[in-house]
Amino acid sequence: MILMSNMNFDNAGFLLSFFMLIGVIASSIRGAEKAISAQMDITGVILLAFVTSNGGGTIRDILLETRVFWLKDIYYVWITVIVGVTTFFLIRYRKSKLNYVEFKYFNVVIDSFGVATFALVGIQKALSFNYGITVVLVMSMLTSVGGGLIADIIANEVPVVLCTGLNLTVSVLVSFIYLILIHFMTSFHASLIAIMFTIIFKIISQKYDLNLPK
Fold this sequence. Notes:
8 helices
């Protein structure tokens, strides 16, 4: 089953770049926070920011046998470095001044943006190669959670995606929502709805401590 022929790819190139930018920024922040929590120095912060934001996309592009995105667009690397360093100083020296509840839900929103936008990037990248639904879903999940999984291993932690947070589940749900909605509206509007769903779903799951059975 090939989905490309049934889809309205309005400004697909712009959407792909836009989601990549948002996803890289959001995931760089999350990676930097993880490194700071693990008491890493600033080089560790930059490394985990890079791995979290670029790891999943790197695996995806290797599997799709295409040029790794950040080798072509090197500015993603510099965005990661800048965001990582900025996050390091803001959190390391100002976290005590932040309201815990506000900081907690800020993290949820940032995480939601990273999961949703990377899932959408994975979908559009796979569809651009005319792959069917199975490969599209796998690339969506890899792009969405692959970097965070590798970062957790580097930080000597059990990967969060395997035990809490529902990120893997959310990436699958976002993918199905997007793939259904694009048959009834533009890619842009389908993407916005998918991202809003992710944010609301993640906030509710955080508030009520929702997780899959263990």
